[in-house]
């Protein structure tokens, strides 16, 4: 593949489709449980089916360890990051990876209809998969 071809690869090719999600009213305990069960580090946060935030294991651990926080009663919305980096499914992979690297983002939410329809999630692990795919096609 040429560099020009790589510019047109859509993010949907490497995203994780239909990611595990959580509602903003759920508890931190439930978020922790879902992350452990599915061996994941990011949860898109939904409210009425619409993306309203992202919760990473880093924020979860930080908030859970604050004095006086009860993971059983504290809600996800109190730990999530509002307005996550969201891209359309046809966004160029190269642009998304560049933006994530420049801003030190660990994830991009892939959505349609102005963020109403969650289609997938693109994490640094997905970026490494894309990079490995690129290296396999590159001459030695």
Model description:
The chain is an alpha/beta fold and 140 residues long. It has one domain (3-137): CBS-domain, CATH 3.10.580. 35% of the residues lie in helices and 24% in strands. It is built from 5 helices and 8 strands, in the order αββαββαββαββα. It has helices spanning 3-7, 28-38, 57-64, 93-103, 124-137, and strands spanning 16-17, 22-23, 42-47, 50-56, 81-82, 86-87, 107-112, 117-123. The strands form 2 sheets. A 4-stranded mixed beta sheet has the order 1-8-7-6. The protein has a 4-stranded mixed beta sheet with strand order 2-3-4-5. A hairpin with a 4-residue loop joins strand 7 and strand 8 (117-123). 26% of the residues are buried. The model has no long low-confidence stretch (mean pLDDT 89).
Q: What is the 3D shape?
A: globular
Mean pLDDT: 89
How much β-strand is present in the residues? 15-25%
Q: Tally of extended strands?
A: 8
Q: How can the largest sheet be summarized?
A: 4 strands, mixed
List SSEs in N-to-C order: HEEHEEHEEHEEH
List the uncertain runs.
Answer: none
Question: What is the helical fraction, as a range of percent?
Answer: 25-40%
The largest beta-sheet arranges its strands as: 1-8-7-6
Q: What is the domain total for the residues?
A: 1
Compute the separation of the termini in Å: 14 Å
Q: What's the CATH topology label?
A: CBS-domain
- Number of helix segments? 5
What CATH architecture would you give? Roll
**Structural class from helices and strands?**
alpha/beta
**The CATH homology group name:** CBS-domain
Q: In angstroms, what is the radius of gyration?
A: 16 Å
* Name of the level-1 CATH class: Alpha Beta
């Amino acid at each position: 593949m040429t560099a020009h071809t790589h510019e047109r690869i859509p993010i949907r090719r490497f995203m994780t489709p239909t990611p595990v999600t959580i509602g903003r009213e759920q508890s931190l305990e439930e978020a922790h449980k879902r992350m452990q069960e599915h061996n994941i580090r990011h949860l898109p946060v939904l409210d009425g089916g619409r993306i309203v935030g992202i919760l990473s294991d880093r924020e979860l651990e930080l908030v859970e360890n604050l004095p006086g926080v009860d993971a059983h009663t504290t809600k996800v919305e109190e730990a999530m990051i509002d307005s996550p980096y969201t891209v359309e499914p046809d966004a160029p992979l190269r642009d998304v990876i560049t933006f994530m690297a420049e801003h030190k983002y660990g994830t991009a939410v892939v959505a349609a209809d102005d963020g109403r329809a969650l289609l997938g999630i693109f994490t640094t692990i997905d970026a490494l998969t894309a990079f490995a795919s690129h290296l396999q096609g590159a001459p030695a």
